[in-house]
Every structure is written in C-alpha cells, then in structure tokens.
Amino acid sequence: MNTATASPVMLYTEQTPNPESLKFVTNRMLYRGTADFREEALAREWSPLASTCSTNRS
Questions:
Q1: For 28-50, how does the pLDDT look when each residue is reduced to its tens digit (9 = 90+)?
Q2: Tell me, what's the pLDDT at 43?
Q3: What domain range is 26 assigned to?
C-alpha cells in the first residue's frame, strides 16, 4: 500500500521590469526549463495551469 502524501504547490507572482508582465513562481519544480506563453492560445494548448493564471489576472 502506498502511503505517500502529496504536498501542496504554492504559487505566487513576482514583478518583472515589464509592467505588462508577471512571473509565476512555485515552491517546487513543475517543469524542467522555462515556459513563456506570449499568447493565451498557446497557454491553453500547452498548460492548463498557465491558461488559468492568464485568465485570472487582474
């Protein structure tokens, strides 16, 4: 029986030099490398998390 407990992922934003951009950061590795989604359609195609973050920006 597997008794491993999943730990929650904390997600927060950091400012960038570009006022039109936010950097999303997590407390653990979700993806090796960098992902840059300049269009919402790309975020929807490749990452449900990125898509959700881009639609919930205020």
A1: 887 788 777 777 788 888 888 77
A2: 80
A3: 11-55
Q: Is residue 22 in a domain? A: yes
Residue 40 and residue 55 in contact, taking contact as beta carbons nearer than 8 Å: yes
Q: How far is it between the farthest Cα atoms of the chain? A: 49
Rounded to whole angstroms, the Cα distance separating 1 from 42 reads: 39
Number of domains in the chain: 1
Q: Is residue 2 part of a domain?
A: no
What's the whole-model pTM score?
Answer: 0.52
User: Is the CA virtual torsion 3, 10, 52, 56 positive or negative?
Assistant: positive
- 3 lies in some domain: no
Q: Which two tokens stand for residue 31?
A: 């993806």
Whether residue 17 is predicted with pLDDT greater than 90 in this model: the reply is yes
Is 6 part of a structural domain of the chain?
no
